Amino acid sequence: MNAGAIVEDLFGTQGWADPYPIYVRAQALGPVVPVGPSTFLVSSHRAVNQVLRTTAFGASSGEVGPERDDRTGTGSMDLLARSMLESNQPRHTRMRTPIAAVFTPRRIAALEPAVTLAVERLLDGMAEAGADGAVVDFMDRLAYALPVRVICELLGVPEADRYRFRELAHDLTRALEFRVGPEELVLADEAGRELAEYFGALAARRRADPQDDLVSALVSRPDEGAPDDGGPDSGMSDPELVANLVLLLFAGFETTTNLLGNGLALLFQYPAVRQALAGGGLAPALFVDEVLRYDSPVQLTSRVALVDGLEIEGVPVPRQAEVLLLLGAANRDPARFAEPERFDPWRADNAPLSFGAGIHYCLGAMLARLEAAVAFPALLARFPELAPAEGAVPVRQDRIVLRGYAELPVRLGR
Prior knowledge:
It is built from 17 helices and twelve strands. By secondary structure, the protein is of the alpha+beta class. The strands form four sheets. A five-stranded mixed β-sheet has the order 1-2-8-5-3, with helices on both faces. Strands 4-12-9 form a three-stranded antiparallel β-sheet. It is globular. It starts with a helix and ends with a strand.
């Protein structure tokens, strides 16, 4: 057993089908393991949390790790590099601050009535589609439709345009995976260009005719469009604005879509949990946190050592080395979670790292939790006989970074 073989398995079909046995193998080697001279595998909760919270480990460094060397300069990677996702301090905070003003706890809590109404309308659509026992794809009808509706309302994307985004975002996020073929990268680049053009045009319309939405708020800032001089008050350049709007779109629904699909699959697998959630014996927030821990919508991220002299759990990490952070493994670390392989929404002191930590902690984490906490009880109340569709097989996405279902066919019952 060696770390190189573990990485090969993780990035292959075995990884996206079921990465958890691979994580057990990784943890058996230790919390931090070198994979060659410039890449490290980190699998413990403590070590992953440490790296995420240490700004000396950056999201990027201008140079990328060996897994991505052949992908620099592509359209999709250029687009992502201009966003918060791939930026370090002080540029990261300069871009994040105005956007974070929209995602405060008070403002997210105020969205609950709108989310509840959206869920009810989508359940009406599911009921119509599933009448007379017809098979319904949960991923299409609710898991995707709910978060894309919510984030598009926040951004100010007209309803008539939203149908385009699922396929485009799916193609663009191929660029986030650590092993991407040339054909997939072409699709990612094409999607990135189309999304950038769309949000560039939307920003221009909002400058001319502001509305009550996030795009209007960002383009109306006095410092918006200023040159990027790296200072904390220099605002976002136009390319940065577009890149971050694209990021908000796909980050606003990809993770939540996977959370909803993974959560429903677990409800089918654990009927006692389902009964408790439907009957009020289990708080939706506890269920959502355990779904995030047990089958995280985001399994893997990476950081780059920006300075000399860094260590992780006593292991020296040279400058420019890439650190692969196994979030899914950290969420099942036996040193942090008792019986980590057991799905237990009542477990005490749950602390999944699914949304990251530190300065890159996901801005939409509270919104994703709200959407899921509203959707699951409403779904079970509307369709108490909801069940997997016999003869129809759920289909997992062929990815390791973003883990979820492409299709989850169900029957609604009476």
